[in-house]
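Hi everyone, sorry if this is the wrong subforum. Our group has a chain we'd like a structural model of before ordering constructs, and none of us has done structure prediction before. Sequence below.
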Amino acid sequence: MFRIIIAILFVTTTSCKEVSYKGPQPKGKPALREIPRELRGKYLLVGENETDTDTLIIARNGYFISSDSTSGVLGDSLVLKKYKGYYFFSDNENPEWLLRIIKKERNGDLSYMHMDRGEQSFNDFLVELNREIKIDSSEVDGKVLYQIDPTPRELLSLIKKGYFRKTVTIKKLRD
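Answer:
Right subforum, don't worry. Here is the predicted structure as tokens:
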């Protein structure tokens, strides 16, 4: 109960808040040196309203999104790990790490997930999440960070309990 009260006291309600991590996830698992062949290729990104689309190209060492020239290259600040059928992309946004999860579907499409509170307020989301795992908060440059440090088992549990939601459909384009 005390942890819940502390979490509520530190919460400010802004829409762009995100729970982050202290390091690449899942912790203790080795980073991949390159993106596996099964993920490489061209994909169509389809937004929630299904009218916004873009092209994603996944290569051996990173990815590229065509419309806005967004890209990422595996290295010290973009780390890829595989665990229990999921691919975990950890992005270093000093002093925190953001996490995105990809799961390959049988038809070749990719499910793209991140921790999403849906319609829930950030405050309510933190209270609920704090029942599952300890949340640390700190202030850095006037911004409050909310971080968790799950074990691999706890991370899988959070996925299975729906804390990570599919937010974008990534459809495999046939060459």
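For your construct planning: The first helix runs from residue 2 to 10. The first strand starts at residue 19 and ends at 21.
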